[in-house]
Prior knowledge:
By secondary structure, this protein is of the alpha+beta class.
Amino acid sequence: MSAAAPAPLSAHDPRILEEALIARFDAAGYTRLDPPILQPADVFLDLSGESIRRRMFLTADAEGHELCLRPDLTIPVARAVLADQVPMPAAVSYLGPVFRFRGEGSGEFRQAGVESFGRADIEAADAEILSLGLDVCALYGVERPEIRLGDVGLFAALLEALPLAPALRRRLLKDFGQGRLDTEMPRAAPAPSPAAAHSGVLAALAGADPAAAKALITDLLSIAGITTVGGRSVSEIAARFLEQASLDAGGGLSDETAAILTRYLAIRGQPEVASAQMRALATEAGIDLGGALDLFDRRTGFLTAHNVHLADVAFSTAFGRPLDYYSGMVFELHAPGGGAPGPLVAGGRYDRLLSRLGAETCVPAVGLAAWVERLAAVDGFNTSGLSR
């Protein structure tokens, strides 16, 4: 818990809690933004994949451009920061409705959060965001939430240190974010016969630039009239085809590399214990993870400086995010004992987001999102915000 954690509030109107939440963000230096509810759909589809289409409320303008009700607020806030040319570093907050088909409750729900752009002190910024998430929980009466911590950057550093083909590295990073590696580790296939390995389209693509190869496959699928398969766009189908072709050509994981990844993905526990285990694995495997682990340890030190109880932190090397712009720390804060159907607060580092949205350079970024209605229904508050 951070040193200046606020006292929990009791109120008949949940909006009073929301006002206190925004006041807490304002006191921490975050200026409120309120981006438009109606957003261009292609931005979310490009950044989150076609799978999100099934959960979006879609419409179109008079020119036929596909629009959507915003399914989250991080991307709209980031777009607003870029459009308004907000000076860096920038610290912004938000609170408002988002719209998404989901298994629980209404398709409209309220979300609050903060986004920090452009800070060079990465470890300190990470710790501040997680600490602020704990303050959010405390405001709603959840004093000791379960803290689940992961690090996409550490896994990416491990992949860079291993002898992997670029296509396989991308596949592993994507599967990691979607939680598939525990059950679906791509393995090296037996060497194919020369006839099979150099026939048809694959022969034409042998040695080609990956971007050009993907463009060619995309064009061929479009000419054939294929638009989507199983929720995947033509571009995603092409990328998957090329990755699978690489695996079929013997580009999967060797037994040695698979063993290293399996050991890595099994590491979990308090941050200091997990760090020691990761360093031991790197030494035994003869790979260099020093820079990424040093950053990890510095962030742990900043968490301690914010009075975060490390005993409450459950770090897992297998915990990622299903969005490819995440680049470092990821976390979720859960109600103790499973008192809510999902995280109360979630966040992480996404240094690739602004450049994916059009920024000329990579901009350090970290933030959090809070499900305010879920928070109001947990531990000490009912869904109307009344103290029990």
